[in-house]
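Bumping my old thread because nobody answered last time. Still need a sequence for this structure:
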C-alpha cells in the first residue's frame, strides 16, 4: 500500500510538472489582460475543464489507438514519449514566449466575451495545459499502471491546477515575475529528467539483456 501511494504521488508530481500551471501563470495572465477577476476565473475554469476532458479522453482511448490503429508497442511509445518530453523541456527552457492579449482599444462586450471564451479553449486549454507532453505522459501511466490510476492522476493534477488558477492574480503578486520565471525553469528541468527516465524505460523493455534483465 505504501509503495502504491508513493508511486501515485510521484506520478502526480511528474504530471504536475508537465502541466506546469505556476510557470504558465505569466502567459495566462497576459492572455487575459483587461479581463475582470470574475471573467478571468470563468476563462480559467473553462480552460481547466476542457484540458481535463481532452487528457481524460486520451487516457481512455490512447491505448486502444496505439494497439489497434497504429500497432505501436509500449516500449516504442515509452521511448518516443520520453524523447518528446526531453525536446519539449529543452525548447521551453530556451524559448522566449511573447503572447499578445489582443489588439489595443476596448472591444465591445460581446466581442470581448467571445475572445475570452476562445482563449480558454485555445491556447490556454490546448496546447498550454493539455499539450503533447501531458497527453503522452497520461497514456504512459495508463499503460503502466492501469486506467483507474490514470483517471485518478488526472483528477488530482487538474484539481490542483484549478485551485492555483483560481488564485492566479494573488499568486502572481506574491511570487512576482522573476519568481514565476524561476519556478518555470525548475519545472522544465524536471520535465527533461522525466523524459530521460521514460527513454531509459523504453530501452530497458526493448533490450532487457543490455540492462541485466
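Sorry it took so long. Here it is:
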Amino acid at each position: 500500500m505504501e509503495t502504491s501511494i508513493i508511486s501515485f504521488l510521484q506520478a502526480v508530481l511528474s504530471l504536475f510538472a508537465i502541466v506546469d500551471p505556476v510557470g504558465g501563470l505569466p502567459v495566462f495572465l497576459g492572455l487575459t489582460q483587461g479581463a475582470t477577476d470574475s471573467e478571468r476565473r470563468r476563462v480559467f475554469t473553462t480552460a481547466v475543464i476542457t484540458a481535463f476532458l481532452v487528457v481524460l479522453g486520451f487516457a481512455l482511448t490512447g491505448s486502444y489507438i496505439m494497439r489497434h490503429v497504429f500497432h505501436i508497442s509500449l516500449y516504442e511509445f515509452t521511448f518516443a514519449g520520453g524523447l518528446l518530453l526531453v525536446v519539449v523541456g529543452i525548447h521551453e527552457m530556451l524559448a522566449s514566449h511573447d503572447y499578445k492579449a489582443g489588439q489595443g482599444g476596448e472591444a465591445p462586450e460581446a466581442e470581448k466575451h467571445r475572445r475570452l471564451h476562445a482563449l480558454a479553449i485555445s491556447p490556454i486549454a490546448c496546447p498550454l495545459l493539455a499539450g503533447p507532453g501531458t497527453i503522452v505522459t497520461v497514456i504512459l501511466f495508463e499503460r503502466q499502471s492501469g486506467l483507474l490510476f490514470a483517471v485518478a492522476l488526472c483528477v488530482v493534477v487538474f484539481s490542483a491546477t484549478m485551485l492555483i488558477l483560481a488564485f492566479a492574480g494573488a499568486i502572481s503578486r506574491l511570487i512576482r515575475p522573476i519568481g514565476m520565471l524561476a519556478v518555470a525553469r525548475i519545472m522544465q528541468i524536471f520535465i527533461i529528467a522525466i523524459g530521460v527516465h521514460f527513454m531509459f524505460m523504453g530501452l530497458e523493455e526493448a533490450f532487457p539483456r543490455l540492462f541485466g534483465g
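The chain has one domain: 23-94+113-211. Let me know if any region looks off to you.
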